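Take a sample.
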Amino acid sequence: MRYYVIAGEPSGDLHGGKLMQQIAANDPEAEFRCTGGDTMADIAGRDKLKYHYKEMSFFGFVQVALNIKTIFRQIDEVKNDIATFKPDVVILIDYPAFNLRIAKWAKSRGIKVYYYIAPKVWAWKERRVKKLRRYVDRLYTIFPFETEYFRRHGIEPHFCGNPLVDDIAQRRASMPTREALSAECSLDNRPIVALLAGSRVSEIKANLKDMVAIAERMPEYQFVVTAVPWVSREVYDTLITGTNVKYVCDRTQQVLHHSVAAIVTSGTATLETALMRIPEVVVYHVPWLYEKLKPYFLSIPYISLVNINLGREAVKELVKANLDIDTAVEELQAILPEGNKREAMLRDFDELGRLIGGEGASARFAQDIVNSLR
């Protein structure tokens, strides 16, 4: 069968590549075309990649407004590419602003539409639920709490686990020793606290300065910012040069593996950290106005996927325009070894792991996709 797969950011490319690999294992005659990244292109073939996500990375109102013609041209060209390829199914991965337009178009032309990793409509832009119900033939979710949410909105979702569990398990098998990591990344022997400051330039600039302020209060620990490779090192250097923070690029799980705790922004990083059983504090800088209007923008009381899935504040969330550094230091100290909140948090992480499910999610999702099409 023919599969057209669309992802618009690095995490979508990672999960899309694993899904495509497992689809091919279940369907030996599978043919792919895609819009995504290097991981997906390695599976489909480099000549089968229509757009790389780096060409499509427009975030925030200003960037979108300045590039609106480019965005609509890309949407039209992807539509034409799908029409030429004539797939049995279009598989959309998150990235809702782009993908929901593709879903509407594909549905109108009788092409099956599967959505893998549902948009987070339960957090914001809930109006998109109507589009999912109208244009998507099969919706796949990666969080257990989403099942009841979508059922309440007239959609029967399919939950087979979370592919992040597979990624962690795969990397765990080849983790470097602490000595090897320290030698490779020029770290010293102090206990490591990982800093996960986000994946976008705006997030990093907003959050890392608060994380550095915390690090400056605790010189007995080695604070390490886990940089993402698609953001220039200069962005990090302007914030950490001359401070008690080390820079390590593209080694997030390796650094977490050897950390005693972490300070994390919102998003998938909070879940990744918890599934690796590393106690964490969530620090997220927001504009003053957003802090005041947050209850009106968000449909849920939490921003971290740990708390959202557990339905309670298992990890402390400091979502502030002006972070109280003393409070942040106290919260971090409470989850360090011998801290009074550490053991309770680790028990919460064990519960989270049971809810999310075990290894093999990508294979289960792929098998369901292939079997449903047959």
In short: Residues 78 and 181 are 42 Å apart (CA to CA).
